[in-house]
Amino acid sequence: MEKLPKIGLPIIIGAIVLIIVLAKSAITIDSGEAGVLYKTFGGGVVTDAPPLGEGFHLVAPWNKVYVYEVRRQELFEKMKVLSSNGLDIQLDASAWYQPKYEELGKLHQEIGENYLERILLPTIRSAARSVVGRYTPEQLYSSKRDAIQNEIFEETKKIVNKQFIVLDEVLVRDVTLPNTIKDAIERKLKQEQESLEYEFRLVTAQKEAEKVRIEAQGKADANQILSASLTDKILQDKGIDATLKLSQSPNAKVIVVGAGDSGLPLILGNN
């Protein structure tokens, strides 16, 4: 009975040590994350195998695991840039990005956990300054925002794609110009709109005048053709036909044919 405590003590100590070792060796990777394994006595960062996925993992206590978020993330950035004529422009942009999953070990080894500050942010800022510097404030304010957005995306992607980062999209959310420049552009756009409206009214009036001229010319041509085709004999026959029709009226009393100089009938009546 006296030996039992002496035998049980090493077992208890061993169990405690085992629990401590297991606790230090157990790693849980949450959803949307992945782990990069660092082998202290085995060559450092593991780059020739996929990263540790979601779930529970046992790792030797002398090794380390660096956890990265591998879901799509969004970066917001406000930048001051210069237009082609040297004016200060404030650009509000955001980027959708994520690390390359299969190359997470290389990302950790060559760049590190702060790859956002080291690579992505400087690249977007540089691309934005380069792209915006090609455009005037008028272009930035009105028609070229989509083009600017696409160019910043392409220039940024070209660089970060080589740095184990996936860039999905760059969005230009707002372009803020100095108030004086903004007011001048708005006045210019308003004047251009008014000029377009005036030109539209002018073209419409010209088309209407042309329509009236064509109609009048058509009537004149018709009258000319009609005048050329009417002879005295035709007029006399038409006058006789018209007179005979009038004679059928209740008011007509006496018809004298051939009484006038033109030979047209005369109608004599009480009225």
**Major β-sheet annotation:** 3 strands, antiparallel
The CATH superfamily of the largest domain bears the name Band 7 domain
Count structural domains. Answer: 4
> Which fold name fills CATH's third level, the topology of the largest domain?
Tetrahydropterin Synthase, Chain A
Q: N-to-C SSE series? A: HEEEEEEEHHHHEHHEE
Helix count equals 7
CATH architecture of the largest domain: 2-Layer Sandwich
| Helix content estimate | 40-55%
Which blocks of ≥5 consecutive residues have pLDDT under 50?
none
The CATH first-level class of the largest domain comes to: Alpha Beta
Give the class from helix and strand content and strand pairing.
alpha+beta
Q: Report mean pLDDT, rounded to a whole number.
A: 80
Q: Roughly what fraction of the amino acids lie in strands? A: 15-25%
- Measured between the Cα atoms of the first and last residue, the distance is 160 Å
Kindly report the spatial arrangement of strands forming the biggest sheet: 3-2-5
The number of distinct β-strands equals 10
- As a whole number of angstroms, the C-alpha radius of gyration is 48 Å
Subunit arrangement of the protein: single chain
Q: What gross morphology would you assign? A: elongated
